[in-house]
Amino acid sequence: MSSSIASSSSSSSSSSKKEKKISLKTSDGEVFEVEEPVAMQLEIVRSFFADNEDVTEQTVMPLPNVSTAAMHGILEYCRAHEEFRRRMPEAAPEEEVRAFEAGYVDRKSNEELKEMILAANYLNISKLLDFLTGVAAKRIENKSVEYVRAFFGVENDFTPEEEANLRREYEWAFEGVDED
Amino acid sequence: MVGEATKLRNEDLNLCFEKLMMLGVGFGGKTGGVKMEGVVITEWKDIPMELLLRIVSQVDDRTVIMASGVCSGWRDAICLGLTHLSLSWCKKHMNELVLSLAPKFTKLQTLVLRQDKPQLEDNAVEAIANSCHDLQDLDLSKSFKLSDRSLYALAHGCPNLTKLNISGCTSFSDRGLAYLTSFCRKLKIFNLCGCVKAATDSALQAIGRNCNQLQSLNLGWCENVGDVGVMSLAYGCPDLISLDLCGCVCITDDSVIALANRCPHLRSLGLYYCRNITDRAMYSLTQSRVKNKPGMWESMKGRYDEEGLRSLNISQCTALTPPAVQALCDTFPALHTCSGRHSLVMSGCLNLTSVHCACAVQAHRTASSIPHPAH
């Protein structure tokens, strides 16, 4: 932290107060130039730079498990949170955060949600992962098996016998609950 | 030389990148055909177990059961990963559901089967005992259809139980209970409230002999409990923190004196309706404080926060007199009679109305020394 403050003050003397950027390359080869504090929310990036002192600003870090689309979503979230943090370093403006997160997730399809969960897991952004898995949980809560299978595009691979057993369990469990 | 170093550094970096790739390949269980483009997991059914469990841990138990029936991958992940389950919401078919689920959810550590209307039968508890050997916390409260067969099964199948609630299971006998305690010796929190037939002195002697780690025991309304049983507990369970003897009408001062002398960590004691209790019991508790805490006054003061009675119910103990109870109240500053905290409960003791905690005096002082903030 202290070193980044020092570098920013020295660069401000040379008039161009440019923010340090980190280059991240997604699975489909696109390179994102990401502001350092935003990129550092990605634990995998943070530990990579912490463990390898030799890497320079020119280093492009490959992220083979993250698609360009997922990266856009991830950065949108991380940038918003960096902005919240910058404005209110003490305590995040909870209502604003909630409003942002609600709008943010409304725009995501199940496919996008899945990709982002996988990406957030790989990039090790625990806050985002908690949030996204919570969203997925809400989307399947109190739904029928058929609904969830269709929703996530999962195929039923049980034998008819297994399926019959599950159906009974499921009927016992869902007695008196409305189906969608 | 410089060029050499740079080359080396680049090699290190390449190695790091390769490691990143490896991480990617291992992830999701899909291999093959992976270079720079990485692995793209295309199906929800392939999402890694830990992620599925992270989602499932945030849904209700009904949905967990549903999710385990989505596909075999999800089922296997949930069966392996699920450690907590409650079926208390189940109004009709809890027994069938337990029979069906217990053999699958073998990693359960906590299982809550509390019922409003008794549904569970012995075969369900046997299924649990046969499959869920890691179980640590089991709530069977209000299962009054269960017989000693359930206790025998748990004794053999679930030796790691540390928390067991069988309150309201009125059919258990004291022999069954004694048998259980000789196997489940790690019990720390045990609720026997209303187990009139099971909680006899001989069962309590077995608990005192076997369950030396016991910290909390609820014997509410077990009217067969007598001094012999409570004294066995006091001698066998030195770690007791909380003991509820509400409605144990037979016990006398001897029980309380034994607890005061042998259980230095006792923080909560319920004596509601124990009408044989007299001032002797109160003075023994007061003295235990002095005995257990020798040394400088300063060091005692520091320990007041953690040790000593914090909760005492002496409602309907009509033989008690104000000096004995006031002395107790003064000795344990965490005992309050004031409405906000109310940790010394004396309802029905009409001759104790003069007993007060220190708060009344303090509140008066505070009110006169601090000006009203609103003006």
Automatic annotation (TrEMBL), chain A:
Q: Where is the SKP1 component dimerisation domain?
A: 127-173
Q: What is the protein name stated in its UniProt record?
A: SKP1-like protein
**What assembly does the database describe for this protein?**
Part of a SCF (SKP1-cullin-F-box) protein ligase complex.
Q: SUPFAM superfamilies from the entry?
A: POZ domain, Skp1 dimerisation domain-like
Query: Does this entry carry the keyword Ribosomal protein?
Result: no
Name the residue ranges with Low complexity bias: 1-15
InterPro entries xrefs = SKP1 (IPR016897), SKP1-like (IPR001232), SKP1-like_dim_sf (IPR036296), SKP1/BTB/POZ_sf (IPR011333), Skp1_comp_dimer (IPR016072), Skp1_comp_POZ (IPR016073)
Sorted keywords for this record are: Ubl conjugation pathway
Domain (SKP1 component POZ): give its ranges: 20-82
Transmembrane stretches, start-end: none
Source organism per UniProt = Xanthoceras sorbifolium
Q: Which pathway, metabolic or otherwise, does it act in?
A: Protein modification; protein ubiquitination
Q: Which Gene3D superfamilies match?
A: Potassium Channel Kv1.1, Chain A
UniProt region (Disordered), positions on chain: 1-26
Tell me where the signal peptide lies: none
Similarity field: Belongs to the SKP1 family.
Q: Outline what the protein does.
A: Involved in ubiquitination and subsequent proteasomal degradation of target proteins. Together with CUL1, RBX1 and a F-box protein, it forms a SCF E3 ubiquitin ligase complex. The functional specificity of this complex depends on the type of F-box protein. In the SCF complex, it serves as an adapter that links the F-box protein to CUL1.
UniProtKB/TrEMBL annotation, chain B:
Record-annotated F-box/LRR-repeat protein 15-like leucin rich repeat domain positions: 158-321
**UniProt key word DNA-binding:** no
Transport as a keyword of this entry, yes or no, is no
**Matching InterPro entries:** F-box-like_dom_sf, F-box_dom, F-box_LRR-repeat, FBXL15_LRR, Leu-rich_rpt_Cys-con_subtyp, LRR_dom_sf
Q: Which Gene3D superfamilies match?
A: 1.20.1280.50, Ribonuclease Inhibitor
| Domain F-box positions | 44-79
Q: Which domain of life is it from?
A: Eukaryota
What are the protein's UniProt keywords? Ubl conjugation pathway
The name on file for this protein is F-box domain-containing protein
